[in-house]
Task: structure prediction
Amino acid sequence: MMNEELEQFEQRLSRQPVREIPGEWRAEILSAARAAQAVPANLRPAPRDSFLSTINHQLSTLLWPHPKAWAGLAAVWVCVGAFNLATQDKAPRIAEKSAPPSPAVMVELKKQQRLFAELVGNYETAEADRPRVYSPKPRSERTECLVT
Amino acid sequence: MPGDSELERLYDAHAPSLFAFLLNLTRDEADTRDVLQEVFVKIARDETLFRGVRGERGFLIRLAHNAAIDLMRRRGTRERTKVNLAEILSPFAPASDPDEAIFRDELSAALAELPEEQRAVAHLKLWGGLTFEEIATALELSPNTAASRYRYALDKLRGRLRPLYEEMKKAE
Result:
């Protein structure tokens, strides 16, 4: 029933006659075609199928459905990029700029450190500051220690 | 390069159906003429164009469709300004019967509201008399895609024209 109704509707649509082509077009279009035919191939404009035009065509096919949306997205990225550049830290980084001290400077620094230590009276490094060297004792000695 | 008589034969055989198809796509007589001329100029210039082509009708529809799509993209802004459907040229012949005239106007407006890809398939099926396989070949689609686009188009047309169609059926 439903299909029958649909078929009737389709038939109704297909019975509507379409407009006829204007008669005067025949001579105009055919003469334009003949004129194009008469132009030698070497005088015709070069075909536009270059690499760039192909890329352009492919891109326009991709972007055409929503050009405003793509343009808006591109504009947002440009704004983000501009903001990023504007807010970049321009202060020179000390760690990057300073060069490692020369050996002469290091020797002088050591000398001054020693002199300062002598003046203060504690040249040797404090015991607490020394790194502990852990030497495991034999298991038998540990047992003795526990017993005593 | 096809001879004069061959060009004339191609024109007489295919230009009327191409005209109706293009008019339904562009809804503009001047654009339709431009596209039709572009197609025949292309045929006249390139002798190798029809080499290896099986169905010349389908091939001509493809040429015309691609040229129309390019033109509509170039003139997209102008098309979008045609908000008033009354400004859009109907692809149907004028009717003497007032009821038929109203139906054709409504059908024309309903077709104009369809997406281009559905309108192209609907036109070729309803007024071009092509099968889904032929439509698929001409528009470079799969037959399933052509069939589904046609179904979507028909559902929309039916939804839009149902009140008028029911009324006309009752009157008959």
Notes: The first helix of chain A runs from residue 2 to 14. The helical segments of chain A are 2-14, 25-38, 51-63, 67-86, 94-97, 103-120, 139-147.
